[in-house]
Amino acid sequence: MDWGKQNRLSQLIKPDGRCYFLPIDHGYFQGPTHCLEKPQKTIEPLAPYADALFVTRGVLRSCIRPADSLPIILRVSGCTSVIGEDLANEALTTSIEEIIRLNAAAVGISVFIGSKYEHQTLNNLATLVNECEKYGIPVMAVTAVGKELEKRDARYLALCCRICAELGASVVKTYWCEDFHKVTEGCPVPVVIAGGPKCETELEVFEFVYDGLQKGAIGVNLGRNVWQAKNPVGVMKGLRAVIHENATPKEALQVFKG
Ligand code: 5RP
User: Fold this and answer.
1) Could you read off the pLDDT of 221-240 as tens digits, one per residue?
2) 182 assigned to active site
3) Does the predicted TM-score (pTM) go above 0.70?
4) Domain extent listing, the chain
């Protein structure tokens, strides 16, 4: 692997092989989402516990100080909204020059496999990989389901992750599901667990992350279950313990309470 790409990946994936990405990109199709109305205010107390931020260029430029920023995974797909016709109808939003200018450690893009826009979004991924490989920039593919949350089972997610890897993604972000080992075992590149809608309890979050890590994921990219929680810093501390200190869900709950 090229030195530059290795260097970028090692900014994101820590020496223990694990990672904790904090996504605050939701505004790109949801607008001012609950608890993310002022991104800077949301990020500041949480940043010390994250390994990288997943963010659009707009929020990066307006809300994040360049001098002391965490490594950035730049969200580079979009052009849809929750009130529009179809969330899957995404395009590439950010040029390779802009990605380089912003010194992104990686880029992230959604694909919607099985949707009307499967070909378009997979073609977006392939095009982005072609551009990014020229400059050693890793691509994180996001296996998105839009509003069809029921799609999240091992057979579907294994298919999606494998296709993303085959098209050249360096990392794949996907939802946790039962039998998660079937997803990671069929994917030749690292898999990161996405969050999804908010869980009832913190213990549930620690449990699915713990299970995903035991079954081969290398970390998480988890947003709403953190910054929409009553105690976001506590959740982040608990998750960090699961990810980087191999804490069990019960131990993480103690960290959260402590
Ligand atoms: C949106 C995204 C988000 O980064 C992803 O959904 C993670 O956030 P959350 O944990 O809130 O689901 O890629 O498509």
Assistant:
1) 999 999 999 999 999 999 99
2) no
3) yes
4) 3-198+220-229
